[in-house]
Amino acid sequence: MAGSGAIRVSPKPERVWALLAVLAGIATILIEIPAALLSEGGYSFAQQPISHLGMTGCGDWGDVGTPIEVCSPAHPFVNGVSIISGSMLAIIAFIWHDWIAPGHWGRCGSFLLAAGGMLLAGTGMVPADIDPTLHAVFGFGGSAIQNLGLIAAGIALIRWPEKRWIGPVEFGGLTLGLGVFGLAGALLLATPENWNLPDGIVERAASYPFLIWFILAGWMQLRDASRRKRELASGS
C-alpha cells in the first residue's frame, strides 16, 4: 500500500528487476572495451563513435578526405547487447513508473525512458553500415528522448515529498543533472562537422547518462531491499 510520503516500489521480485537494470547498464558500457581491443586497425574512444564497434563490414568509413578504417569482429556481441539491454531497460522503465514517483511527471519520465530503451535496441538491430540514416535516427533520437526522460524523472523525484539520497547527493537532483548533461551532449551531436568535436566523447556524453542512471537506480533498490530485509529480521 502507498500513502502520503510512501514510495511504491517495483513489483515482486523487486530485486530481480533492480539487478537486471544494473547488469544491463554495465554490460552496455563494458562491452565496448573488448570490442575495441579486438578491432582491426585500432579504435579511438575519443574520436570514433560507438556505432563503429557495431558495424558488420570492414573498410574505410567517413568523409572522403578523412576516412577511418573500421573493422569490428566483435560486432555481433555489441549489437546483441544493445538489443537485449535496450529491450530490458524499456520494460524496467515501465515497471518503475511508481518507483520514480507517482503522478504525471513520473509517468512521463517512465514513458520516455522506456522509449529510449527501445531506440537503443533499434541501434543494435540496424547497424550504421546497413542503414546509416535509420541508425542515425535511432541513435540521435534515442539520446534526445533518453535524456528528456531523465529530466522528467528528475523533476518528478524532486517534486515527490519522500526524498531519496544516494550518498550525500539527493537522487532527484542527480537525475536532473544527468539529463541536462546528456541532453547537452545530444545537441552537440547535431553540430556542424567543421567544428571538429571528438565524436566518441560527445556521443558517450549523450548516451552514458541514461545507462548510469539505471545502474544507480538499480543499486539503490538493491540497497533498500537489503536494508528492509535486515530491519525485518532484527524486528522478528
Automatic annotation (TrEMBL):
InterPro entries in the cross-refs: DUF998
Protein name per UniProt: DUF998 domain-containing protein
Membrane-spanning ranges: 16-37, 77-96, 108-128, 134-157, 169-190, 205-222
Keywords, sorted A to Z: Membrane, Transmembrane, Transmembrane helix
One Pfam family of this chain: DUF998
Native source organism of the sequence: Brevibacterium linens
